[in-house]
Design a protein that fits this description.
The complex is a heterodimer.
Chain A lengths: L15 H33 L5 H31 L7 H45 L9 H21 L2 H5 L4 H11 L7
Helix pairs in contact in A: 1-3, 2-3, 2-4, 2-6, 3-4
Chain B lengths: L2 H7 L2 H12 L38 H31 L8 H29 L9 H33 L1 H8 L3
Helix pairs in contact in B: 4-5
Classes of the chains: A mainly alpha, B mainly alpha.
Chain lengths: 195, 183
């Protein structure tokens, strides 16, 4: 028996509002595709190529050069201090101090370069994890930039250099003199090449 | 066994019907399959027309059809752009860390040796400037290089193990959670 009287559950019709919502969702998705997908793809390409060797060489070399320049300044100052003390450059005392500082320089340069390489791998995984989060619609994390990374590492190298040079008797002998102040200043004023 | 291998074992007609079923091809027109739609990774939603179903009778559920098309497009986009990255991350995890460990160890060891050589060169040039003869590498220096190498390699391994934990808990850990709650 049919009672009429309008649409029953057996005769469902979609509401106009639902259709409008679906069209809005489709328009929003199209805008996302037009504007944001190419930007996301740029980041995805960067992330997927982050383990390529060319991304390591330059940064590791920079870290090692920055560490080297800090030590070179200090070693020159130490040599001047040694000569001011009247040390013979062929003497065992001069050679021992020079060797100790050079050994420390090699250690810090190696550590700085290695640490930069490891940090680059960490950065690559961080980027890839961010891509995975983007795919899931989860808030991705802001990563420490290369400039901040470089500055942090430079700070660590300077602290190590200060420790190494504080053991140098030649630099200690210059303490209180203009050259001594300059040596200390020389160790502290280095900044990242990115700054 | 892959889907293609599974299809190869079936009777050709059944295989075709099964393939069409999963590809969501309209059996009457032979069109509309998700796999047949063009996919542009730089504009994956460009082929969607928001008003494609606007003229359709509301009794034919045009909004549901449009939503279904959007959902399929989103899935396809996710599969094409994000799933390969998830697979790469998952494949990178090993029992002790990640697949990048070997490359990192190589770079660490190269950095220590190369910088030791560089500093020896710098030292020799420094001595030449003062008219001093070159000196052999001292035992202390060799020991220091070896100790820097050991410390560096140990640090590299420790950092790699940390990475694995970070990936499992923060990077791809969310993928499992998301997959379990899907639906």
């Amino acid at each position: 028996m049919c009672f009429g009287g309008g649409d029953g559950p057996e005769d469902p019709k979609e509401s106009m509002a639902k259709m409008a919502l679906a069209e809005t969702a489709a328009s929003n998705l199209q805008r996302y595709g037009d504007v944001f997908v190419p930007l996301e793809n740029m980041y995805i390409n960067e992330a997927t190529s982050s383990f390529n060797q060319e991304n390591y060489g330059g940064q590791m070399g920079d870290a090692s050069n920055q560490a080297s320049s800090i030590y070179e300044t200090g070693i020159d100052d130490a040599a001047q201090g040694a000569f001011a003390r009247g040390l013979d450059p062929n003497s065992g005392a001069f050679n021992a101090e020079s060797d100790a500082l050079r050994t420390a320089q090699a250690r810090v340069m190696g550590e700085a370069a290695a640490d930069t390489g490891i940090a680059q791998t960490d950065r690559g995984f961080g980027q890839l994890a961010n891509v995975a989060k983007m795919g899931l619609g989860i808030q991705s994390e802001v990563q420490e930039g290369l400039v901040a990374q470089s500055q942090n590492q430079l700070g660590a190298v300077q602290r190590k250099a200060e420790e190494d040079f504080s053991r140098s008797s030649s630099i200690q002998s210059l303490a209180g003199t203009g050259a001594g102040i300059a040596a200390g200043y020389g160790l502290n004023k280095k900044e990242s090449r990115y700054s | 066994m892959t889907f293609i291998e599974f299809l190869a074992q079936l009777d050709p007609e059944v295989a075709s019907q099964t393939d069409n079923h999963y590809a969501n091809v309209n059996p009457f027109t032979g069109t509309g399959g998700q796999r047949n739609q063009p996919y542009d990774p730089n504009n994956p939603y460009g082929n969607i027309n928001p008003y494609a179903y606007s003229g359709m009778s509301r009794e034919d559920n045009p909004a549901d059809k449009l939503y279904a098309q959007l959902t399929r497009a989103q899935l396809r986009d996710y599969q094409e752009r994000f799933q390969p990255v998830e697979d790469f991350l998952a494949a990178n995890i090993t029992a002790t860390g990640t697949e990048q460990l070997e490359a990192d160890l190589e770079r660490t060891s190269g950095a220590v040796i190369q910088n030791s050589d560089n500093v020896r060169g710098q030292s020799q040039r420094f001595r030449e400037r003062y008219g001093l003869s070159a000196r052999e590498q001292t035992t202390a220096s060799k020991n220091q290089t070896a100790s820097t190498m050991v410390g560096g390699l140990n640090m590299t391994r420790a950092r790699d193990a940390d990475r694995k934990d970070q990936l499992l808990t923060g990077g791809i850990g969310a993928i499992g959670n998301s997959a379990r709650s899907a639906g």
